[in-house]
Amino acid sequence: MDYLLVKPDKDRHRYVVGIDFGHGETSAAWCELEWDKSAGKRESIPHDVELIGNLKVIPSAINITPDGRCYIGEDAFHSDFMMDGAKMRVGFKQCPKEIEGESEQLMIEYMRSIYARIIEKVDKLQKGNHIVYIARPSGWTDDETKDLYRRMALEAGIPLGGLTSESRAAIFYAINRDEFKKNVSQGGIVFDLGSSTLDFTYLNFDDPDPIDHGYPCGASIIEQAIFEQLLLKDNVFSDFLKKYPMYKDAFLFECRKKKEAIYNTSDTNLRVRERIELAHIVSLDFLPEEDIDKYDVVLKLEFSNVNEFNEWLEQVCHYKTDIENAIRNYLNQWIRDKKVYGVYLAGGATRMNFLKPIIAEMFQLSDEQVKGDSEPSLTVSRGIALIGTADAVTTVLREDLERKKMQLVESQRLCMRMDKLVQDMAECISETSWNVVHEACSDFKRKDLDKNLGVKDLEADIRMRLEKFTESELSSVISGVFNQFFQYESEDVRMELNDIIRYYAPGQEIKNVRNEVSDISLDIQSISDICMKHTSGIVSKLLWAALGIFLFGVFSLIYQAIKFLIYKFKSEESRRKDICQELEKNESKIKNDIKSELVKKFMEDASFSNIVSKELKYYLEKLIQYNIDRVRIPIE
After folding, report:
1. Is 235 helix (H, G, I), strand (E, B) or coil?
2. CA distance 175 to 396
3. Is 543:464 a contact under the CB 8 Å cutoff?
4. Alpha helix locations (H) across 132-266?
5. 628: helix, strand or coil
6. How open is the CA angle 560-561-564, to the nearest 5 degrees?
């Protein structure tokens, strides 16, 4: 279904919308795509959508009446809209199994309604000028589930650009917060407690692959406990639900509201006094006359303070213990031996007063190292908007890099690079081959001074050394040239790619070519062996021919006869020194001629050019693609 996803378009799209369709509540944010600005000048600020009045969070609840009208949020359980045959649900989000399923169809309608609300509330969003990204629970990891969820959003009419996990969205938001950035640079965790799951994400900038895992201990367990342990144990409420089961979700929703009222109090020492009035949940006017007085009842939730409520909660459902066990399992099974320098709290449920002390104790952190946003319910939607913006920007970046890739491996450019390689190789061979001659002269001048050695002895030694050089050392010389050449080309590519990357995504630049390309399988030795096959037969001849132009005079009979008279009255040491001097004074000319002859032969050798240009193209393509992939954002 990926082909149905909206592809970011620099010419069309101006905004990104991120939506968090949470199990308990929903929020959304949008960012502007500032295409005309370089990365350092982009603001990339997520703007929250006020979904109801000036409220940025809407309860994930839906009511579809028999006549097809759809009500969401608080309106789903408004007494005027609850009627026989209505589909009223809260906490209906579940792992999709089939797109035609009842829960899946409810979710599609909910998605459609939320998206319509966003368009209604944000004037800047017009058809075709924005892309939407959504999040999935971190536990939905198999491809079939993710594909179904994408299809549901597409069927809801959402111009979907991609999908990411809630925990990834949360960590993406957290690393953009100054109060957490320092912690995560060394190793930090996002603790995302939602309605259905508790998700952990660990990130260390030295090891940029996040480690995330989720546990089924979301905060909806608390309202479920109130519903089962208090409300259902009241005979009147229990009797009402047996008679009118369609109102079960309305009662659950009321229990959730009471839970939030308990934990939203600023003074946790105050007495807890909450009331669940059946008449406030259901309009008694719709009931038969004999039931009106019977069900006009109130259930009181009274505790001396919030901590006493927490103790009751632990007794009836062990919620605190479940949280502790989840932390312990994540520490021992998923991030064993990892250092944790900070925890960032995300999700509306992190307001619960007992969480922060548990987290600080179990992760062995101070209170200052456990941080959170003032509006934790918005962390994921803001993170989705930011990560969606990054995905859109890097999609265009990747397109620009792909175009650059074609330029860098274009035939004419490769030919120019081949010229450099041939020049470098010929120069290196001429230098190293002359070193052979120089070493032979050095040995000739000093060894066995008690013997009379002539130019023929020097000639024989030079020939022997050059043959040994071409047979056993030339290959490593060529390998060295190739290594330096490919390293030079890598650095050149790095600079050209970074010019593009830093415009879109600073911090993603290629820092170190040698490390970055360590897993590109390029066998330099094999390339040099192939080149040796075509060059070794001519190199020694070329070297000797180039040397011979100048060595002929030194090694000729006429030269030796003339010099015999001169050397007759000189010491053996002086005589040898003069012979070598005659040879070495032509070093520059000899090396230049060797280099010129090698360049000519290499360029004439079509098989050599084909092999090297093919490997160079392969190498550059791999290098560039490696770094194009490196700027990928984790959108699914």
Report:
1. helix
2. 23
3. no
4. 143-155, 166-174, 178-186, 220-226, 235-243, 248-263
5. helix
6. 80
Position 531 scores a pLDDT of: 61
Helix and strand element counts for the chain (H, E): 22, 16
pLDDT confidence of residue 554: 45
24 with 256: CB under 8 angstroms? yes
Between strands 160-165 and 130-136, the pairing is parallel
Phi, psi of 413, deg, nearest 5? -65, -40
With CA atoms as reference, report the closest residue to 365 among 332, 335, 338, 343. Answer: 343
The 3-state secondary structure of 80-94, one letter per residue: CCCCCCCEEEECCCC
**Whether the predicted pLDDT of 432 surpasses 60:** yes
Interval 505-543: pLDDT, tens? 555 566 655 444 445 455 555 566 656 665 555 566 666
Q: How many CB atoms lie within 10 A of CB 198?
A: 25
Q: Roughly what angle, to the nearest 10 degrees, separates helices 306-317 and 319-329?
A: 70
Give residue 511's pLDDT.
Answer: 62
The pLDDT score that the predictor gives to residue 631 is 62
Q: How far is 293 from 287, CA to CA, in rounded Å?
A: 10
Terminus-to-terminus CA distance in the chain, angstroms?
12
Instruction: Tell me the β-bridge partners of 55.
Output: 52
Residue 351 has pLDDT above 90, yes or no: no
The DSSP code for 8 is P
Contact 262, 226 (CB under 8 A): no
Please state, in angstroms and rounded to a whole number, the distance separating the CA atoms of residues 628 and 580: 56
Q: What does the alpha-carbon distance between residue 184 and residue 418 come to, in Å, rounded to a whole number?
A: 45
Would you say the C-alpha torsion 228, 233, 236, 239 has a positive or negative sign? positive
> What residues contact residue 195 under an 8 Å CB cut-off, 6+ apart?
22, 23, 24, 25, 60, 91, 218, 219, 220, 349
H/E run at residue 3? none
- The count of residues in the chain is 636
20-59 burial string, b = 16+ CB within 10 Å, else e?
bbbbbbbbbbbbbbeeeeebeebebebbbbebeeeebbbb
| 247 torsion bin: left (phi>0), alpha (psi -120 to 50), beta (else) | alpha
Tokens of 174: 């957290």
Report the C-alpha gap between 549 and 591 in whole angstroms: 12
Does the pTM of the predicted model rise above 0.85?
A: no
Phi and psi based region of residue 61 (left: phi greater than 0; alpha: psi -120 to 50; beta: remaining): beta
SS3 label, residue 2 = helix
User: How far apart (Å, rounded) are the C-alpha atoms in residues 555 and 456?
Assistant: 7
Residue pair 203/173 in contact (Cβ under 8 Å)? The answer is no
Token pair for 542? 């070329």
pLDDT at 527: 60
Distances (CA, A) of 487 to 175, 482, 495, 540, 619: 34, 8, 13, 28, 11
Tens-digit pLDDT profile for residues 454-492 = 677 877 888 888 878 877 787 788 778 877 877 777 777
Report helix, strand or coil for 293: coil
32 versus 589: which is more confidently predicted? 32
